Amino acid sequence: MPIIKNDKTTPLRDSRSAIMDVLKRQGPQPASRLATRFNVTAMAVRQHLYALQDEGLVSAHSVPSGRGRPTKSWALTDKAHGLFPDAHQELAVDLLGHMRAQFGDEGLEDIIDRHSAAQRRSYEAALVDAKTLEARVHALAHLRTGEGYMAEVQRDGQDWLLIENHCPICAAAQTCTRLCANELDVFTRVLGPNASVTREEHMFAGARRCTYLVSEAARIKAS
Fold first, then answer.
1. CATH number of 11-81
2. Bridge partners for 201 per DSSP
3. Has this prediction a pTM greater than 0.70?
4. Of all residues in the chain, what percent are helix, strand and coil, respectively (each to 5)?
5. Residue 71, class by beta-carbon neighbours within 10 Å (0-12 exposed, 13-18 middle, 19+ buried)?
6. What CATH architecture applies to the domain 89-222?
7. What is the Cα–Cα distance from 17 to 149, expressed in whole angstroms?
């Protein structure tokens, strides 16, 4: 759930937080779809959306809808994205800058590689009881959610989509792209030799989320 700064927590605030969580995880939505999800009227959802719009947290744009009237779709603003966990990004960016100044680019990359190796070992220890590829994907998503990535798993035919709806180290990864580059390697190693992992969507490429397609390696080779 996003952390919304307010004097106190109220049921109304909780409802708005829930709406923002859905918009973060699933992207732009019309009020009618949100209403169906929460089993309330579209008018009730719109009241929350208009309040969030007044706070600068959501914005609306028209989407063509066949021959009828355009549908109004609601999305989070940049201000709203800033309310989700950021893993102390300003501090992380500063530390990366100091490490680059102290050790140079190669030294910084070596530090990042050591961090990735430690992260991989931690994940492998946590996934030791997950025997199937599907179980390992779900376990990895659970670990990533605990780190603030709002991860989830969706079935895609015979494959799985590991989806990260938020990046709590986005600013740091932009400063040092090796952080992001190593992520794919870590996932591939952690999921095991029977896994083939490819990045399908990437926030740095303009997507609203990062998505990884996980397939059975043996099936990929056979095809």
1. 1.10.10.10
2. 211
3. no
4. 55, 20, 25
5. middle
6. 2-Layer Sandwich (3.30)
7. 17
